[in-house]
Known about the structure:
The chain is an alpha+beta fold. The chain has 7 helices and 17 strands. The chain folds into 2 domains: 16-168, 2-Layer Sandwich (D-amino Acid Aminotransferase, Chain A, domain 1), CATH 3.30.470.10; 174-340, D-amino Acid Aminotransferase, subunit A, domain 2 (D-amino Acid Aminotransferase, Chain A, domain 2, Alpha-Beta Barrel). The strands form 2 sheets. Strands 1, 2, 3, 4, 5, 6, 7 and 17 form an 8-stranded antiparallel sheet that branches. The two termini are 13 Å apart. The protein binds 2-OXO-4-methylpentanoic acid (COI).
Amino acid sequence: MSTFSIPVTKTTHSKLSETDFSSLVFGKSISDHMFVADYQNGAWGDFRIVPYGPMEIYPGNATLHYGQAIFEGMKAYKNEKGEVLVFRAEANAKRLNESAARMCMPQLPESIFLEALKQLLSLDRDWVPQGKGSSLYIRPFMFAMDNYLGVKASDTYRFMIFTSPVGAYYSKPVSVKVETTYTRACEGGTGEAKAAGNYAASLYPALQAQKEGYDQLLWTDGKTHSQIEESGTMNVMFKIKGTLITAPTHSGTILKGITRNSVLQLAKDWGQAVEECFLTVSELEEALKNGSLEEAFGVGTAATIAFIHKIKVNGKDYLLPEPKPEAFSKRVLSTLDGIKYGEIQDPHQWMTTI
Ligand code: COI
């Protein structure tokens, strides 16, 4: 990786001492600094690390009107020695560029992404919480910067990274409802891109489910609403009769989750039977009825593993038993945590020490 020095303007008022690391709420506290890069005349430049704070954009900024915006979510951890470790940063840099291609946005060289991340995390290393269950959530994102109201891909862009110390995303197992009216993503759409608009479109259906008392949705395919695709903002996995089942990502409607990929890799390492196939709503209902559904869980960066304890299918609630200590989902969570906190061997070199 080529290295280059990024000019830094340090904050004169660190928020570190005002931050209560013992009760971190996801996304509430933001670390002191942010990285900024601008894309103009076909090239990325003007790299800088500055205090986190407001920025000026024109009311005619194209992102505000036509939503050309993408993001990533990733995490850094602190091991017992106080070293900062980042999980699968290259995979996030690569996926950002895949999203960028779909949204007509410029490619960001991986070397810029990784070097900016390294220098930002080195500066704000005291913001990485220590202790199981806590981490530094990292939010890289890119958005259009043209001040122009015509509908077209912007000519100018901004890429930024800021970070946030976080605790657990879900403090307890979640309840989900199979969604058969609204759609997260259709074939040919933007479902596999980490595009801001996908999340905006999911808010209304998620709110309806919350009003009914469910934490999240189990999204189904947009055409027939008969196949399970994702859960909330996460990929979803089921264990039925010993086989781990998750939706494949070739349809273009499913996010290529990095946690999803990591869970599948560990499953493969352990000789766990895996099927990447679409589970139908009827198959899910049947497995819930006959007790063959052993485990159901969301997998994503924010939550890592979100255990599902209740599923509503075709108007009926089904309760899932608490996963046993030897359950796949428990084992995979403790293994991922062990790797991330530097407690166990990292067989796939997923961690980078800053
Ligand atoms: C994830 O967990 O992967 C996410 O993208 C969650 C984020 C939208 C808060």
